[in-house]
Design a protein that fits this description.
There is one protein chain. This protein has 9 helices and 6 strands. It is an alpha+beta fold. The protein has a 6-stranded antiparallel β-sheet. Strand 3 and strand 4 form a beta hairpin. The chain is elongated. The N terminus is likely disordered.
């Protein structure tokens, strides 16, 4: 039997041919992906690690922003406390008014029940059935008095009802205000925490060598600020000494001019009298000049205030500085006002409270308390504020130095007021 020819196409032993379209597409796709990956890597190189100086600048900026947010938190916290107190007071008033209203309601109920039991008798019928006209009049007087009392009770009930409605409306408004304050408080707290977390993240990425270098930069910055404070203090002292010397020379020149003999001659009685009078005047002028100089010095020492007022301020400032020095070494904690930790405005508030002066809670409000003073007229105890947003404050102690609660991770310490940009200063009392 002849073998049948096969009609099937023969398969290639190498599988899919090299000229297959699928292979071409796949190869092109792989090449494209590889090319794009290479181009992407070339177009977006990895960002270099920031330098220690950049980290320092960023961390300082974050701490400053956190300080500003802390003041916002303190403000919201104070507002929340006030609103809660208001809500509690209004609630108590509403409860008392509700009790009074219920009492008035019970009184009206008893009147209504009595009237229902006794019924209502027309005046004509009451006159007919009365034992005598006098009895009728007496009964009518009693009835009128009861009616007036009932009408008064009704009016009192209506008044108390309206007052309770108003108080409930105020309570609702107070609750809404409290809710807004609480929302602001949460927002401020989250902002502070976010800024501090960012700063901590930057610091934790530093190597031990970079941290050591950062600490060295901080010390350098502190030393520079201290030298600047010392230089400005010496310059101010020299300026004061030169001013005092000029004043002394002017007094001496006035005295010499007044002591010169008169043109009439010493033998002339008029000249003698004039000379005597001149001498007396000179003594008076000298005394006045001395008193004026003393008063001027006292006034300058007190920032232009009278000596008695300056002495009173110095007494208060001594208490403030004693308290502030006792807090040195305690940690900065945002939102804290003592006794174990402080933020900047919490420390100043607590220190001046010891001297009998109640300061507001935030740096913004403290900056508007008391009398504004120039930097070159600062006295110990004055408050110095920093940055354009007035987010930091310290207590001046003299010689360009202050005590303050600096920032998270640092303790209450003495530092130059020139360590940060000065916004302004005030004398609280």
């Amino acid at each position: 039997m002849p073998t049948l020819a096969s009609h099937r196409k023969s398969r290639t032993r190498s599988g899919v041919g090299t000229n297959s379209p699928a292979v071409g597409v796949t190869t092109a796709a792989i090449a494209s992906v590889t090319l794009l990956s290479t181009q992407g890597a070339a177009a977006a190189p990895a960002e270099p690690n920031p330098s220690v100086e950049e980290v320092q600048k960023k961390v300082d900026d974050l701490y400053r922003q956190a300080g500003s947010a802390t003041q916002q938190y303190n403000k919201a916290k104070t507002a929340t406390a006030k609103q809660k107190s208001t809500v509690d007071r209004v609630r108590d008033n509403v409860a008392k008014s509700a009790d009074k209203l219920n009492e008035a309601r019970r009184t009206l109920g008893s009147y209504a029940a009595t009237q229902y039991r006794e019924g209502t008798v027309a005046p004509t019928a009451a006159l007919i059935f009365a034992d005598s006209p006098q009895s009728f009049l007496e009964q009518k007087e009693v009835t009128d008095r009861l009616a007036e009392r009932r009408q008064g009770a009704v009016a009192d009930f209506q008044s108390q009802q309206a007052d309770l409605a108003r108080q409930r409306e105020r309570a609702t408004e107070s609750l809404e205000s409290l809710a807004d304050s609480q929302t602001s408080l949460r927002t401020s707290k989250e902002t502070v925490q976010k800024k501090l977390a960012e700063a901590r993240t930057l610091l934790t990425r530093l190597t031990s060598e970079e941290r050591a270098r950062l600490a060295a930069l901080e010390r350098k910055k502190e030393d520079e600020a201290r030298r600047e404070a010392e230089a400005k203090s010496k310059a101010a002292a020299h300026a004061a000494a030169r001013a005092a010397e000029r004043e002394r020379q002017e007094r001496q020149e006035r005295r010499e001019r007044q002591e010169q003999p008169s043109a009439a001659g010493p033998e002339s009685p008029a000249a003698t009298g004039a000379g005597t009078t001149g001498t007396g005047t000179t003594g008076t002028d000298a005394g006045a000049g001395t008193a004026g100089a003393t008063g001027g010095a006292a006034g300058g020492a007190a920032g232009g205030t009278p000596s008695s007022a300056g002495s009173a301020y110095a007494t208060k400032a001594a208490k403030v500085l004693a308290f502030a020095r006792a807090q040195i070494g305690k940690p900065y904690v945002w939102g804290a006002s003592g006794p174990s930790s402080y933020d900047c405005s919490g420390l100043t508030q607590a220190a001046w409270k010891v001297a009998g002066v109640e300061l507001p809670r935030t740096t913004w409000d403290q900056a508007n308390t008391g009398t504004r003073v120039a930097t070159d007229g600062l006295l110990p105890g004055d408050l110095v504020f920093f940055y354009d947003d007035v987010s930091h404050v310290g207590i001046y102690i003299g010689d360009g130095m202050m005590i303050h609660a600096p920032k998270p991770g640092a303790n209450v310490r003495e530092e130059s007021i020139y360590y940060m940009p000065i916004h302004g200063s005030v004398r609280p009392a």
